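Ex. 9. Protein: Two component transcriptional regulator, LuxR family.
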Amino acid sequence: MRVLIVDDHELFRAGLALLLRELYPGIELLHASTLSQGLHHARGELLNIVFLDLDLPDGHGCEALAELKESRPSLPVIVISADESMETISRCIELRAMGYVPKSSPPEALHAAISAVLVGGVFLPASSIARFRHDIGTSETPANEPGHERPGGSSEISNAAGLGLTPREFETLTWLVRGLPSKVIALKMGLEDVTVRKYVSHLLAHFNLRRRTELIVMLADRGIKLGVPPVTDPEHDRSLSAVARQRTD
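Predicted structure tokens for Two component transcriptional regulator, LuxR family:
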């Protein structure tokens, strides 16, 4: 597994690296202290996932995330930040972050969060999940509904049958959660845009949701894990971005 850590505090990078090596002894880590360095690594390296701080010397909050996702649309990004405002967390999820980990988290919580996201789970602060659910007017999903798991519970990887989905719907879900827009998902799956939008509509209806943000919150709330994000190729991402720009959503 190859992971990029983008944070301007060397001590925090070192601590995060220790946690990651404890979880995955064979992990390969790349470090960057600025957004420009992070983008340089992201554009030239095969990577599974990026941990991104928003407060960088040459970054500007959520704009750093937007720039990274624009450059590498298929690369999953986990924000790790001292900013715990709902506005910032919501904006990061809208910008297709795979999760959000507050730096104020105690070591055991940070350990659990990292363990979850590296196997395809979504991590959000418990307080923000409650706020999201309040804002969208939903209550906790009953345990007998498809795919329900206790938050932070089983480490078992979910599959299509377990979530009550078709294989194509499940594949769409994994790409959607990792932050790909529908037109890029269509390219990856060799489908027309309209077909992927239909799968996305089916997913939202299946889980009784209205938009991707709610889907991310639901996955974080239930502790659902979708599998280790695959290595993403920057050259492939450049091709995807070029072709996607020629398509319309």
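Check your answer against this statement. Residues 1 and 150 are 27 Å apart (CA to CA).
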